[in-house]
Design brief:
Number of strands: 0
Oligomer: single chain
Structural class: mainly alpha
Order of helices and strands: HHHHHHHHHHHHHHHHHHHHHHHHHHH
Largest sheet: none
Number of helices: 27
Radius of gyration: 25 Å
Length: 540
C-alpha cells in the first residue's frame, strides 16, 4: 500500500511538471521520473516502466550517469517477466557504457584468467583487511555494482533454464569483477554479496569449505558495516547457497524466510520471490511435513501471481505436483503429469517434458525412485543426472540430493542387469559414491548420510549383507538426527528391499514396516498406500 500511495503522489508530481518539463527543469524532471520509474516497477506496472525508461534514456542523450537508473529498472522489469535474455542484454549494454566490458566469447580460459587475477589480488588484500577499506564514492561505479548484481541474477537463472555453461561463466566473471572493484575503489553494499559469491566459488572450485566459512564470516561483518536493508534480500539469496554447504540444510530455511521478508518490506519483489522459492525447495528436500509444504506452495505461488513475479512459477508448480503425488492427492505416482496442474491462473504453466529445465527433470527422477519405477529413473539419468544439474545450477543443494537418487538408480539397475550392463551401471554408481563421499569429506554435513546410504547400496549389490546393514543403519541414524523423515524412510525401504531379495523375511519386514512409519510421519500417504499394496503379505 505504501508503494501505491507513493505512485499516486509521484504521478501528480509528473502532471505538475507539465509537458515541457525536460526543457524547463531537466534535473528535477530526471529525479522525479527516476523515482516513479522505480515505484512502478515495485508495483509491477511493466508496460509503464518500459515507456518511462525509454523516455529517460532518450532524454539523457548519451549521458550514462543520467540514464543508468533507467537501464537498471528496465532490466529488473524484464527479469521479473521472465525475459532473462532481454534483461541480460540491457544490463550488459549499460555496463559497456560505463567501461565495464565482458568478453564477447566467454570461454573457460577467460574465466580461469579472471579467477587467477582475483585470487592473486586477495593475497595482497586478504578478506579480513577489506573491512578496513574506505567506502566507494564514484556514483556511476556504485550503480554499475548494482547492475552487475542484477546481471549475475539473470545469468544464473538462464543457466538453470538452458543448461548452458556460458551463463555460469557470466556469474563467475561478475563475482570476480566486483571483488576487484572493491579492492581498487572501496566498499559498497554489494561487496558483501560478492564476497559471499566468492566463498561459494571457493567451495565449487577449490573444495575448501573452511576457507568458505571464513569468507562468509567476513562478508557478514561487511554487510553489518556497509550493507542496507534494501539489499538484504539479495544478500540472503547468496548466503543460502554458501550456508547450504557448511550447515545442515534444514537450518538454512530461516535465511530464505529472512530474505523473503526483507524483499517484501523494501519492494524487491524479485529477490523476495526467489527466497520464497528457495524456502519451498528446501522444505521438500528436508523432510518437512508435506501437508504444510503444500500450504506453503499454495500461498507463495499465489503471491507470485499477485506480484507478477511468475518467472519461477512453473518450477514452483512442479514441486506442488511432486508433493501431491507423494501425499496421494493425485491419480499419478512416479510421473509429473501436466493434468495435475492447479486450475485458474496456474494452468498450462508446466512445459512438455522436452522443454523442462534440469531442475524439473531431477524432481521427476526423485518421484520415479520413490515409487520404484527404476526403468523410468534410469532413462531420466540421460537428462537429469547430478552432472547435468551441476552444469546449469552449480552448487545448489539439489545437486547432491540428485546424486542420492542417481546412485540408488544405478545400483538397483545393476542388480536387475547382467553382463556388461550390470558392470556399466555398477561403475556409474561407484562414481556417484566417490563424488558424494568427496563432498562429505571436505565438510558438507548434508552429504554424510547420503554417502553411507549409497555405500550400503554398493555393498548390497556385492552381496555383503552385514556391511550393507551397517551402512544403512548409519545413514538412517544420521538422517533421523537431522529430522530428515524423507531420507530415513527411503534408507529403511532400501534396507528392507535388500533383505527381502536375500530371502530374510524377518529383517525385511522390520525395515519395510519402519519405512512405512517414516513415510507416514513425513505425510507421504500416497507412498504408504503403494507400499501397503506391494507388501500386503508383510504389512497386515
Amino acid at each position: 500500500s505504501a508503494f501505491d500511495s507513493s505512485e499516486k503522489y509521484l504521478s501528480r508530481a509528473v502532471d505538475l511538471l507539465g509537458p515541457e518539463c525536460w526543457d524547463n527543469d531537466y534535473a528535477l524532471s530526471l529525479e522525479i521520473f527516476n523515482l516513479i520509474l522505480q515505484v512502478e516497477c515495485c508495483n509491477s506496472k511493466f508496460e509503464s516502466v518500459q515507456e518511462r525508461a525509454n523516455e529517460i534514456i532518450a532524454r539523457a542523450n548519451g549521458r550514462i550517469q543520467d540514464s543508468i537508473i533507467a537501464y537498471k529498472v528496465l532490466g529488473e522489469s524484464l527479469h521479473a517477466q521472465g525475459r532473462y535474455e532481454d534483461s541480460l542484454d540491457i544490463y550488459l549494454k549499460c555496463l559497456s557504457r560505463v567501461g565495464c566490458e565482458f568478453p564477447k566469447k566467454l570461454v573457460q580460459v577467460a574465466v580461469l584468467s579472471e579467477l587467477k587475477k582475483t585470487k592473486e589480488l586477495l593475497k595482497v588484500s586478504p578478506p579480513p583487511t577489506m573491512l578496513e577499506l574506505p567506502p566507494m564514492e564514484d556514483e556511476v561505479r556504485i550503480l554499475a555494482m548494482v547492475i552487475m548484481d542484477r546481471t549475475a541474477s539473470s545469468a544464473f537463472l538462464l543457466a538453470g533454464r538452458s543448461g548452458k555453461t556460458v551463463y555460469t561463466y557470466f556469474c563467475i566473471l561478475i563475482s570476480c569483477k566486483v571483488m576487484q572493484w572493491t579492492v581498487e575503489y572501496g566498499l559498497h553494499k554489494y561487496s558483501a554479496q560478492a564476497l559471499m559469491s566468492y566463498a561459494w566459488l571457493h567451495i565449487l572450485l577449490y573444495q575448501d569449505i573452511e576457507g568458505a566459512r571464513t569468507l562468509l564470516n567476513v562478508a557478514q561483518q561487511m554487510d553489518s558495516r556497509i550493507g542496507s536493508p534494501q539489499s538484504r534480500s539479495t544478500i540472503c539469496n547468496v548466503k543460502f547457497l554458501v550456508s547450504s554447504w557448511i550447515m545442515p540444510l534444514k537450518e538454512t530455511r530461516k535465511t530464505s524466510l529472512e530474505g523473503y521478508r526483507f524483499g517484501v518490506e523494501y519492494g524487491d519483489n524479485h529477490a523476495a520471490i526467489t527466497n520464497a522459492y528457495q524456502f519451498i525447495a528446501t522444505e521438500t528436500q528436508t523432510g518437512s511435513n508435506l501437508s504444510g509444504v503444500k500450504e506453503d506452495i499454495a500461498t507463495y505461488s499465489q503471491q507470485m501471481i499477485e506480484l507478477k513475479q511468475t518467472f519461477i512459477l512453473p518450477e514452483t508448480m512442479v514441486y506442488m505436483i511432486w508433493v501431491k503425488n507423494l501425499m496421494g492427492d493425485s491419480d499419478s505416482s512416479s510421473t509429473l503429469d501436466v493434468d495435475l496442474m492447479a486450475s485458474g491462473a496456474t494452468q498450462n504453466l508446466l512445459p512438455p517434458p522436452e522443454m523442462r529445465s534440469p531442475k524439473m527433470r531431477v524432481l521427476e527422477l526423485q518421484q520415479a525412485v520413490y515409487f520404484g519405477d527404476y526403468q523410468l529413473a534410469a532413462s531420466l539419468l540421460k537428462v537429469a543426472s547430478h552432472s547435468h544439474l551441476q552444469k546449469s545450477a552449480p552448487g545448489i543443494p539439489l545437486v547432491w540430493r540428485t546424486a542420492m537418487f542417481e546412485g540408488i538408480t544405478a545400483f538397483v539397475t545393476a542388480r536387475k542387469s547382467k553382463g556388461l550392463q550390470r558392470l556399466k551401471w555398477k561403475i556409474h554408481g561407484i562414481r556417484v559414491v566417490k563424488k558424494v563421499s568427496t563432498w562429505a569429506t571436505i565438510g558438507n554435513t548434508n552429504c554424510l548420510h547420503i554417502a553411507h546410504l549409497l555405500q550400503g547400496e554398493q555393498n548390497a549389490l556385492d552381496g555383503k549383507i552385514e556391511d550393507a546393514k551397517q551402512k544403512y543403519d548409519t545413514a538412517i541414524s544420521i538422517a533421523r538426527r537431522n529430522g530428515l523423515h524423507n531420507d530415513v524412510a527411503l534408507a529403511r525401504e532400501r534396507a528392507g528391499e535388500m533383505y527381502l531379495d536375500a530371502g530374510d523375511l524377518e529383517w525385511g519386514t522390520y525395515y519395510i514396516e519402519s519405512a512405512c512409519t517414516a513415510y507416514r510421519e513425513w505425510g507421504a500417504l500416497g507412498k504408504v498406500n503403494q507400499m501397503l499394496q506391494k507388501y500386503d503379505n508383510l504389512l497386515n
